[in-house]
Sequence to fold (1014 residues):
Amino acid sequence: MIAHKDKVRIFDTTLRDGEQTPGVSVTAEQKIQIAIKLDELCVDALEAGFPVVSQGEVEAVEGIVKQGLNAEICGLARAVKADIDAAIDCDLKYVHIFIATSDIHMEYKLKMGREDVLNKAVWAVDYAKKHGMQVEFSAEDATRSDRDFVRRVFKAVAEVGADRLDIPDTVGYATPLYMAEIVKDVRTATAKELPISMHCHDDFGLAVANTISGLNSGASCAHVTINGLGERAGNASLEEVVMALQCLYNKKHSIKTELLYETSKFISNTMGIAVQPNKAIIGENAFGHESGIHTHGIINNPLTYEPISPELVGRKRWLQAGKHAGAHGIRAMLEDFGIRPSDEQLHRIVERQKDLADKGKSITTAELLSIAGEIMHNNKFEEKFKLYDFHIITGMNIIPTAVVRLNIEGKDFIASETGVGPVDSALKAIQKIAGEIANIRIREYRLDSITGGSDALAEVSIKVEDKTGNIISARKAGEDVVVASVQAMMDAINKTMLRKLIYSNNC
Amino acid sequence: MIAHKDKVRIFDTTLRDGEQTPGVSVTAEQKIQIAIKLDELCVDALEAGFPVVSQGEVEAVEGIVKQGLNAEICGLARAVKADIDAAIDCDLKYVHIFIATSDIHMEYKLKMGREDVLNKAVWAVDYAKKHGMQVEFSAEDATRSDRDFVRRVFKAVAEVGADRLDIPDTVGYATPLYMAEIVKDVRTATAKELPISMHCHDDFGLAVANTISGLNSGASCAHVTINGLGERAGNASLEEVVMALQCLYNKKHSIKTELLYETSKFISNTMGIAVQPNKAIIGENAFGHESGIHTHGIINNPLTYEPISPELVGRKRWLQAGKHAGAHGIRAMLEDFGIRPSDEQLHRIVERQKDLADKGKSITTAELLSIAGEIMHNNKFEEKFKLYDFHIITGMNIIPTAVVRLNIEGKDFIASETGVGPVDSALKAIQKIAGEIANIRIREYRLDSITGGSDALAEVSIKVEDKTGNIISARKAGEDVVVASVQAMMDAINKTMLRKLIYSNNC
Fold:
């Protein structure tokens, strides 16, 4: 049961603390799917839920137990009989029992004195042990608790057989230095040294550093969540803790890091909580580069501006044109499409795109290609499909319908189609005209309101995938979400075709 | 020029490293607006840009200099004449000069040897000093550089008059321990101790901890960005560093923390980079609570589950119903609307909402009120405005038009209106019928695609503000973005009216 000395044990609590993220609601079936994904990622243990909270939670936990996963499956319980019984009834063999030990929690939430809390903790651990459970015990709000009292509580639960001791920094209030000290406190509190877990929250952005500080001071297990989900600012994120341990501290773990990005995406989509672009390891920008100095460095040797290879976490790097982009980056991007401008042409392309960027305009790859086409007098890079007209009808008790007029190399084509919504019907109408060549699938569709208000400028970002698996992205801003969506789609279709054309012509 | 010994100097680089976030493009005018906001926040210094990159950047930096802000205004320059001249020409008095000192950067990017790099650094600092500039010098990629060489470079630039030394952890590769060591290296490298800055990136989630470790070891200035924007995973975030210094390390700073949230929102909207809900200090969930145990604690004493009061950073806490919500939280939420169920009624309300949550459904406040109304047999809580029908026409070369049929207390009303887009026209048509009572303004409008694809289930979240400044939020999911938007708006209008009704009746 005790983890190998040199290996950090990863205890994932995405399905418990992560599911407590305000706004997250998932079905039992979705929880089971997430558990399977986490098991594929090779977490050592996963907290499947808090069985006493609802019937749906019981079904989810039971369902996860039945999967026969490699990870140890744990359930949360307060130090009360009903909670522990609920965990036992789910056929769990491993329970995470907690009770608060800080004065503020005992006075205002539990309304109990220290001795009562101590007795209740001992009773609960003893009860669970007598029912054959593996028990991990948490002194909730440990980092704001009286140090002597926390030691006493951990000592007492160890005496009745607790298998693991967890130190939760419940409101993210600890510093790395204090985490190191409290781990030493707990290590020396018990007669026999038990494995210690760190459970850190990110209220001041210190969750990863606090977790690692504890691990460096003798703790052997990290409670973490994918994407750093969890109450308030969330928990220490699995991907950051694992990669920091591996790359900066030379510690071993069992995680298949090349599945991190995929797992993160799956959980973000299932739980409906977005990941910000500037999030370490799994944010969209974590391996994206725009500024000239950075893209120049990356082209010569990626390690100049990347701490690790993106493939290590299941990702690919990308470069983007923009105000800070220099000639090296633009040349590399154009070469991706087989386009090789002269130095003088390149200079003019860079000038033009900086000019657009100065006006606050994001430069899409299609726009860059179009600029290049113009400057290089090559009409091959022009948009093949021009959207001349479209209208859409939708509402309640109406089947969403789109009528589209496209111009393809000088000829007009009109088609109408219905769909589940306006964007879907427009895509179908366009595909009806364009046929196989526009055979794309929308992978991601996002809309951000930039200024707020019903007349706000909205920005649509889409990623489409063509038949051969190439991902093309496009963005469009406008006051009308439907029009912006259709225009972004046209942009993506044109880019897809441009890409095909260039590669097939081998220019 | 040297900061007060006990006060940490905050050097904001949102407009330089933050603007290098891939995907960000802002106009000169927008950069000036951001600089004014940062000055109101009371940053000590702000890096306005990188003048040599484009004409627009020059205009932005000149414009910011002309504002006569309290903050010192700095510009970035490579250790080359053109860059430093560009900074001088913007009328800057303060330049941030950098050159890379790591072997990998020197070999693959600069293609220069150590002595050439050293000479170039010295030449550049000397040149800028001779032009009367305050000079902050950065040894780029310092944390991956040879320690002796970094010391030599810092010593040499100090000898020609550098005023400040910055230690950049360019690819976020340092640990807190190494940051402490390198600060000590640099402190002892120069004859006279110069003020030292920390510039940390968040590639492993350690930017805040690394910054603070450096400050605790003798550095006096933190390079930070709002929302942690910046290259790749971004820089250390201003809000996290400042609040951690204040609350956990008892250090002084000049930031008006009550403006943090507002500033974060402004910059997120202007730069178009979203903040994830589980982001410390400024994420939507940072002071939001859903689980029963947490809401129970919060109601008795907010400090049980909040490390700091939300007002300290310009925010308000919120509670939400959900699977983990317990009776205490639901009772508090209903009391907000003046609704006081009996214990037995409360039990039934909680059961019903958990049942919905188990099905993966997020419970809006309107739904909670509707459940409560049903169980308490009080039709006051029913929706007053029922949407019976609507249709919308939009497209290219068409003025977006909506026709709406509402039923208000049994009577039908029909209206049509045009707008800048389908949602705008629908809101206007609804307001035409509902008049003053629906006098709301959409503050935020967000759409998330949950599963991807043009037939994806999209979730619309809106926040509306009524005439008296109350913020009401509503969410709706559906395959048709327009229909979901209109339904979310109806939901918000009904809640707004419900709130008014309850408060005016004083029930």
About this structure: The radius of gyration of chain A is 28 Å. The longest helix of chain A spans residues 481-505. Chain A has a mean pLDDT of 88. Chain A touches chain B through 150 residues (CB under 8 Å).
